[in-house]
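Re: [ENG-882] Designed sequences occasionally contain unexpected residues at chain ends

Forwarding the minimal case from QA. Structure tokens:
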């Protein structure tokens, strides 16, 4: 091993030279024990992250199409409405139980098509947006386009609407099943008010609590 080049005297003593007298006064048990303790704490922190498992609660649905996802508080499961497979909601803890955000999954059935489903989705979205207009008051589409949910091809529609007198931002994702040529899939609906963490449609699903179900959604029963 080559020796380190000598340090010119004008630069003064090196850091090891300055620390050597102090280190010699430290008991040997501390010189060995403290670095070992730091290494052990680091290993425990890594092991905790690996073995504690994913955060939140897992939901698994098997019919009419199998999928799973995870969610965390303040979202909680509420009874699904007609035409829905899953509904989660978050409310403020006040007398009115003010609505903050929600995540809803509905079955999706695409029309017959040829070729890649990614080519069908933009055209299908034009028709689908009419159902959104019937669902929400003062609906305004602000952006739409292809996106991926995990590794699956999907199409997202961002919009604003009204919930009574309150402003509502939404992201609706049309997500076909993973098999090539599949006509079955799911519609993922994310809604939030400014108090729920989304003042703009582009933020819906990018901030908690809606980010967890979006980023953990998987077809099948195996989670992330």
């Amino acid at each position: 091993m080559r020796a380190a080049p000598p340090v010119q005297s004008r630069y003064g003593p090196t850091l090891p030279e300055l620390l050597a007298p102090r280190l010699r006064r430290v008991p040997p048990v501390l010189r060995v024990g403290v670095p070992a303790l730091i290494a052990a704490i680091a290993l425990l922190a890594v092991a905790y992250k690996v073995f504690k498992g994913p955060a939140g609660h897992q939901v698994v649905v098997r019919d009419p199409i199998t999928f799973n996802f995870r969610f965390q508080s303040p979202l909680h499961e509420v009874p699904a409405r007609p035409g829905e497979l899953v509904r989660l909601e978050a409310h403020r803890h006040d007398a009115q139980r003010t609505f903050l955000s929600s995540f809803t999954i509905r079955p999706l059935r695409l029309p017959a098509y040829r070729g890649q489903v990614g080519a069908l989705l933009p055209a299908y979205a034009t028709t689908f947006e009419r159902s959104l207009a019937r669902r929400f008051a003062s609906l305004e589409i602000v952006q739409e386009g292809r996106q991926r949910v995990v590794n699956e091809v999907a199409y997202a529609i961002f919009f604003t609407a009204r919930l009574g007198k309150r402003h509502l931002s939404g992201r609706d994702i049309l997500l076909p099943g993973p098999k090539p040529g599949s006509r079955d899939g799911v519609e993922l609906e994310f809604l939030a008010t400014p108090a729920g963490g989304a003042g703009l449609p582009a933020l819906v699903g990018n901030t908690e609590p809606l980010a967890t179900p979006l980023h953990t959604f998987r077809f099948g029963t195996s989670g992330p």
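QA comment: On inspection the terminal residues look reasonable. The chain has two domains: 9-51, 57-219. Proposing we downgrade this to a documentation issue.
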